[in-house]
Design brief:
- Helix 4 packs parallel to helix 10 and helix 5 packs across helix 9.
- The protein has two domains: 145 residues, Alpha-Beta Complex (Aspartate Aminotransferase, domain 1); 239 residues, Aspartate Aminotransferase, domain 2 (3-Layer(aba) Sandwich).
- It starts with 6 loop residues before the first helix and ends with a helix.
- The strands form four sheets. The chain has a seven-stranded mixed β-sheet with strand order 2-8-7-6-5-3-4, sandwiched between helices. A three-stranded antiparallel β-sheet has the order 9-14-13. The chain has a two-stranded parallel ribbon with strand order 1-12.
- It is α/β, with parallel strands linked by helices.
- It contains 13 helices and 14 strands.
C-alpha cells in the first residue's frame, strides 16, 4: 500500500534537537557511554513546593477538562507575574495557557499568518520557529548574525530585512541557541525601526528570562509603542525544571488571545489540569526560590567556556543567559579527523557523537551553519568529561 502522507508533513523538517537526543538514546541502548549535551532540559528536580501543589491538585480532584484558555486563578497568577517581573499589564482576557510554549508559538502562527506572509527570524533562532512558520504557510526570512555581534540582530539588519510582505518578527531573549540577551538599549534600537512599520507584529519568546546572568531582563513589550503589537511567550519548562509538565502561555492583545483560544479549542483544548495547578505555585513564588539553579547554571557556563577556550579551533563568546554555548567551529571545515572529512557543522556534530560519544546539535538547524550548540544543563562532572572527550577527538 502506498503511503499517502500530506505534502505538509513531507516538507516538514524533523526537530534536530529531538533527533539527536533519539540518536543518543539508541547508542546508549547499544552499550555506548554517551554524554548528552544536546537537549535544553535542566538536570534539576522540580522544587518540592511545586510538587506539593501538584499532589494537592490530585487530592482535590482536578481531573476534569480545564478551560481552553486556562484556569482563571492561573491566569491571575500569570498576570501578576507579568507585572512583577516584566512591568507588563496583561488582563485575564489577554492570557492563554497552552500545552507548552511550543504550542503557544504554533497558535500565534496559525491565527496570524496568511499564505506568503513573511516572518523575520534573526539567525540563529530556536530550531522550531522556521517550520512552525512554514506550517502556517508563512515564509521565514533569516537575518544572519555572527559571533562577532554576540549573535544579535542590529537595527540596520532589521530595516534591510523588512519588505512589503513582512508580517512578523520572532526572536528569543535570552536566546536559544546562542544564550545572547538583548539589552534595553538594543531593544530600543529595534523598536525605533519597528515604529516606522506599524503593521509588523512581534513574537518575543522569553522562556529563559530568569536564567539570565546580567542585571535584569527586559521585555520588548515594555518599550514605548511595542505593547499592543507584541505577543509575549513564556512558560515554566526551563526556569522551574518543569519540561515534562508542558505548560506555556502568552500575553497579547485580547483579540489575538481570543483567536488563539478559538484555535486551541479545536486542536488540544485546555492544558493538563495538574500541571496548571502546579504552575500557580511556581509563578506565585519569589524568584529567589529558584536562585540556586540560576547560580549553578552561571557557574557551569564559566566552566565550559574556560574548557572550550583551551581547544584550538573553537571560537566562543560569552553568552549572558539560557544554558547553551554556541561555538563557531568553522575552522574544522575541510579538515580530516580520524579519516573523516568535516565539511560542515552537521558533519562535526556527528563526528563528536561517533568519536567522542558526546551529543551536541548542529548549528544548521538553528540557521547558523558555522556553529554547534552545546547545552550545559548537565552536571559539572559530565561537562568536564564531555569537553575532555571533545578535546581528545579533535586534537587527533
Amino acid at each position: 500500500m502506498k503511503h499517502y502522507l500530506s505534502d505538509r508533513i513531507n516538507n516538514m523538517s524533523t526537530s534536530a534537537t529531538l533527533a539527536m537526543a533519539a540518536k543518543a538514546r539508541e547508542l546508549r541502548q547499544a552499550g555506548k557511554d554517551i554524554i548528552g549535551l544536546s537537549l535544553g532540559e535542566p538536570d534539576f528536580n522540580i522544587p518540592d513546593f511545586i510538587k506539593e501543589a501538584a499532589k494537592k491538585a490530585i487530592d482535590d480532584n482536578y481531573s476534569s477538562y480545564s478551560p481552553v484558555d486556562g484556569y482563571g486563578d492561573l491566569k491571575d497568577a500569570i498576570s501578576k507575574k507579568f507585572s512583577r517581573d516584566n512591568g507588563l499589564d496583561y488582563g485575564l482576557d489577554q492570557i492563554v495557557v497552552s500545552t507548552g510554549a511550543k504550542q503557544s508559538l504554533a497558535n500565534v502562527a496559525m491565527v496570524m499568518l496568511n499564505k506568503g506572509d513573511e516572518v523575520i527570524l534573526p539567525a540563529p533562532y530556536w530550531v522550531s520557529y522556521s517550520d512552525i512558520v512554514k506550517l502556517a504557510e508563512g515564509v521565514p526570512v533569516e537575518v544572519p548574525t555572527s559571533i562577532d555581534t554576540d549573535f544579535k540582530m542590529t537595527p540596520e539588519q532589521l530595516r534591510k530585512a523588512i519588505g512589503p510582505k513582512t508580517k512578523m518578527l520572532w526572536f528569543s531573549s535570552p536566546c536559544n541557541p546562542s544564550g545572547s540577551v538583548y539589552s534595553k538599549k538594543e531593544l530600543e534600537g529595534l523598536a525605533e525601526v519597528l515604529r516606522e512599520y506599524p503593521d509588523i507584529f512581534i513574537v518575543s519568546d522569553e522562556i529563559y528570562e530568569h536564567i539570565n546572568f546580567r542585571e535584569g531582563h527586559v521585555s520588548i513589550a515594555g518599550i514605548p509603542g511595542m505593547y499592543e503589537r507584541t505577543i509575549t511567550v513564556n512558560g515554566v519548562s526551563k526556569a522551574f525544571a518543569m519540561t515534562g509538565w508542558r505548560i506555556g502561555y502568552i500575553g497579547a492583545a485580547s483579540w489575538i488571545a481570543k483567536a488563539c483560544t478559538k484555535f486551541q479549542g479545536q486542536i488540544t483544548s485546555g492544558a493538563n489540569a495538574i500541571g496548571q495547578r502546579a504552575t500557580i505555585a511556581a509563578l506565585q513564588a519569589p524568584v529567589e526560590k529558584i536562585r540556586f539553579m540560576i547560580d549553578e547554571f552561571h557557574k557551569r557556563r564559566d566552566i565550559i567556556l574556560q574548557l572550550l577556550r583551551e581547544i584550538e579551533g573553537f571560537q566562543v563568546n560569552v553568552p549572558e543567559g539560557a544554558f547553551y554555548v554556541f561555538p563557531d567551529i568553522s575552522d574544522f571545515f575541510g579538515k580530516t579527523l580520524r579519516g573523516k572529512t568535516i565539511n560542515n557543522a552537521s558533519d562535526f556534530a556527528l563526528y563528536l557523537l561517533e568519536e567522542a560519544n558526546v551529543a551536541t546539535v548542529t548549528g544548521e538547524a538553528f540557521g547558523n551553519p558555522n556553529c554547534i550548540r552545546i547545552s550545559y544543563a548537565a552536571s559539572e562532572a559530565e561537562i568536564r568529561e564531555a569537553i575532555a572527550r571533545i578535546r581528545k577527538a579533535v586534537n587527533s
